[in-house]
Amino acid sequence: MRLAVHESGDGAKTAVLIHGIMSDSRAWHRVTAELHAHGYRVLAVDLAGHGLSPRARRYSPAAWADDVAETLEPMLDRAPDVVMGHSLGGLVASLVADRLAPRAAIYIDPAFSFPTGLKGWAFKAFFAVAPRPRRSALVRMNPRWSAVDVDIEVATLRDWDKRTIFGFLDTRPLVPPARLVAPSLVVLAEKSLLITERVAAQMRGRGMTVETVKGTGHTVFRDDHAGFMDTVVGWLHGLGPTTKAVSDRALAAA
Could you count the other beta carbons within 10 Å of the beta carbon of residue 126? Predict the structure, then answer.
């Protein structure tokens, strides 16, 4: 499936941004602006069932990743410098990284695990049956969001296909990447909905850098945009020149 892509910026580097469930490419507006300032061309997708992209008959992490790769490959003349994803988009980004072999991967409070037992079923049931929240509820639930972000969330919820929830009926694919094709940063909320200390330790054991932005909830880059960008930009600046060569070799072997 060919997806809607918001392309912006004319920098020499390329960043691919993949939003979370119920959202779309508009959520990245402040991140996109800062990436432009750091010399990036940005390709922000709307996943199937979100934003301006088509609806699908069935949803799954693998299908979302296939759509992203199919859509972006003709737009890339080389491996992207960064693939970044939030929540569901973090999981999808990890699958896309296997295809596109970016120079770096950034996962924001990613869906690399899911609550088990009764808590897990309650989680699914809430998303499946709860009505779309009104603006006043969004403000109460997210006191650190800007008014612009609240308005964007209202709009993206209106454009969201609720059937995407069925893409999580099988939670077995919700795992951290088994292998790293590029240096990988995980940026966690202080109280992550999805990542436990055990899973964070597992990711560190696989060579991923795991950082927490204090005082933030699940949508880290909206709760503390400055803290989030400081973490991301500092980590990217710390990547050595050999990293690109490693990514190029991974792409050639793919």
Answer: 10
User: Coil, helix or strand for 209?
Assistant: strand
Residue 243 has pLDDT above 80, yes or no: no
Backbone dihedral angles phi then psi of residue 42, each to the nearest 5 degrees:
-115, 130
From the centroid of its chain, how far is CA 52? 17
Lookup: tokens for 160: 């969201």
Q: Which residue has the tokens 């099988």?
A: 170
How crowded is residue 6: how many other Cβ atoms within 10 Å of its Cβ? 18
d(CA 19, CA 131): 21
Phi and psi angles of residue 13, each rounded to the nearest 5 degrees, phi first: -100, 155
Using the predicted structure, report yes or no on whether residue 7 has a pLDDT greater than 90.
Answer: yes
C-alpha–C-alpha distance, residues 137 and 142, integer Å: 8
Eight-state DSSP code of residue 73? G
Residues 71-118: tens digit of each pLDDT = 999 999 999 999 999 999 999 999 999 999 999 999 999 999 977 666
User: 10 Å Cβ neighbour count for 204?
Assistant: 12
Q: How far, in Å, CA of 90 to CA of 186, rounded?
A: 9
Give the total residue count for the chain. 254
